[in-house]
Amino acid sequence: MTVVMAVVALLLALSRRKQTRRNREMDAALKSAESRTREAESRTRFADSRTREAEAREERLRAEVTHLVSARLPAVPLHLISSHHPIPGLLNKGQAGPEDAELLDSVLTRVSEMVLKERRRVDAAARAALRGASQDSQALSYRLQSELDALQREFTGSRHLTHRMLAADHLNEQNLRLIQRTAIVCGAWPGHVRKDTYVAELVTGASSRLRGFDRIKINSRIASNVGIVGRAAEPIAVACAELMANALEHSRDDLAVDVGLIQSGNGNVCITVDDAGKGMTAEAATRGARLVSADTHDIMLTELGDPPSQGFAAIGRLVADYGFHVSIDHSSPYGGVRAVVTIPPNLLASIDEEAEPPSAMAPQAAVAPKAERRPSSVPETPVDDDEKSRTPVPDSADGLPQRRRRGPAGPAGGLAAPTYRAPDPERSLKAWSEFQDGLESGRTGTDLEETQ
Question: Is 26 a member of any domain?
Answer without folding.
Answer: yes
